[in-house]
Predict the structure.
Amino acid sequence: MVLLIDYTWYHAVNDQHKLNDVLTAAAKEQQQLHAIEADIIYSESQGISVMGHPPQVDGELALSSLLQQVHQSNFQQQQQLHSTKCNILKLDFKSMKALKSSLNEIQDYLKKLSPQLYSQVWINADILKGPGVGEDMKPKFDAVEFMELLTTETPVTASTTLSIGWTTSLTDSRAPYTQGMVDEMITLLAPYSNMNITFPIRASSLRSSWKALSNLYNNEVDKSKKWTVTLWWSLRSEQHCLSREEMNWIHNLLERGDPALHNRTYYDLVDFSPT
């Protein structure tokens, strides 16, 4: 059985240098599980989707090039003989324009994989308003349009994993997700019971939000299909870092407590090493 905690995450793989490093590491360590997280923006000057994170408006590495190199390196195909073990490619879209301009390239990439591996390609977007967010940080996506685009208009992407979350702000890095935010997401997913879903959750807010967020581990839409959560956090500053005590609390809650929660969480967390 694959343990989700065993994935090694490579965050913000948005340039050629970082991509080279990840693909080299994955090729050397084929027995390890690797996950690439890369951000996609739309370049108005080039008229294509490129790798980058706002406030960037352009980038040197095109999404098409990243997908081609990932394919040529066998980053995911190298594990096709082990259907339960496969590296993850997480594509984090920062605007609807970037997503729409990328769909043909994503579909072409998927066609090169065995269908059993489609779910290891993740399409990520913050589609609902989240904790600590003001009117100036509204989602760049219409949530309903996003879901319809990836399930109805481009059916092949419906076999991927949708990583759908909430916008967040560093104004208060521990601001909680509310029950209303969670209910809004669950209601949105009601028509999509057959989808592979993971929820990216800011780890620094998990403790203050647990009563609400625990509902995400209970798929009320289709109890036969278990949702997962991806905890993320990358800041190391004293003000924002996760303490050792907090990491242990997270690990004990999700991996040593209620068995129904075990192996339901990915950990894209800097310096995550619970004791």
In short: The chain has a mean pLDDT of 91. The longest strand covers residues 34-43. Residues 16-28 form the longest helix (13 residues). Helices lie at 16-28, 63-72, 96-100, 103-110, 143-153, 179-188, 206-213, 244-255.
